[in-house]
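R.M. (postdoc): so does anyone remember the format we settled on? I'll just put the structure tokens first.
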């Protein structure tokens, strides 16, 4: 993704507006191509400003989607992360600490937390596999946990309704939806941002053409050319 900052984008479009103002003040500016005219540059500026607004909107949507997923996985009181210990405790109470059910559930929870990953070497420090850290992996592990609990039958009957099978399935569905929303919102942001990058590139190239036209019409030592040559667009 292009690393140009929003401040940089704003400065460039501001300089483009200054270029138009300068052209309007020049005596009988004659563009060599329609896209180098005052009207042509002005249309490009207007289009880019609209794109800037769209990028800001898509970026906000993506940020909100990221926060929504964090709430579901980690931050909410009843997030996936926060219900793992209560689930583990309920199964141990229902079936016994050393039961197969308790061991199966503990094994899945251990994978979700990344505790089954061996320590890295001393140069790398302690780390957790990226695949286990990914939200999609966590979602799959949580699906395994819900599927395992669904085999327990009526013996698994937690007092907290947030921990019952129906609620856990709903939470899983919310996690899947949150992951999908991230993918969708990010794709929309990337597409519109790439469109903006292309638009800025075209404007930049046309601005160069305008400067060359001014140099040709008024001369390289002219006041007109000195006014516009330093405008970075």
């Amino acid at each position: 993704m292009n690393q140009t900052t929003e401040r940089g984008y704003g400065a460039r479009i501001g300089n483009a507006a200054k270029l138009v103002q300068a052209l309007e003040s020049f005596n009988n500016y004659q563009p060599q191509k329609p896209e180098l005219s005052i009207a042509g540059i002005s249309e490009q500026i207007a289009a880019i400003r609209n794109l800037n607004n769209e990028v800001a909107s898509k970026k906000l949507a993506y940020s909100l989607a990221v926060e929504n997923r964090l709430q579901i996985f980690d931050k909410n009181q009843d997030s996936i992360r926060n219900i793992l210990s209560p689930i583990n405790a309920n199964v141990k109470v229902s079936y016994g600490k050393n039961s197969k059910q308790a061991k199966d559930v503990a094994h899945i929870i251990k994978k979700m937390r990344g505790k089954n990953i061996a320590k890295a070497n001393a140069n790398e420090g302690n780390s957790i596999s990226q695949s286990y850290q990914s939200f999609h992996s966590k979602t799959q592990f949580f699906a395994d946990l819900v599927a395992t609990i669904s085999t327990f039958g009526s013996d698994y009957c937690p007092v907290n309704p947030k921990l019952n099978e129906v609620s856990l399935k709903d939470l899983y569905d919310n996690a899947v939806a949150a992951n999908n929303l991230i993918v969708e919102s990010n794709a929309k942001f990337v597409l519109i941002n790439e469109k903006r990058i292309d638009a800025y590139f075209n404007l930049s190239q046309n601005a160069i053409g305008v400067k060359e036209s001014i140099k040709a019409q008024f001369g390289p030592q002219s006041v007109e050319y000195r006014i516009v040559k330093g405008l970075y667009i």
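R.M.: ...and that's the designed sequence above, right after the tokens. Also worth knowing: The helical segments are 6-25, 38-75, 80-95, 100-113, 130-133, 135-150, 165-218, 223-228. The chain has two domains: 6-71+190-228, 77-184.
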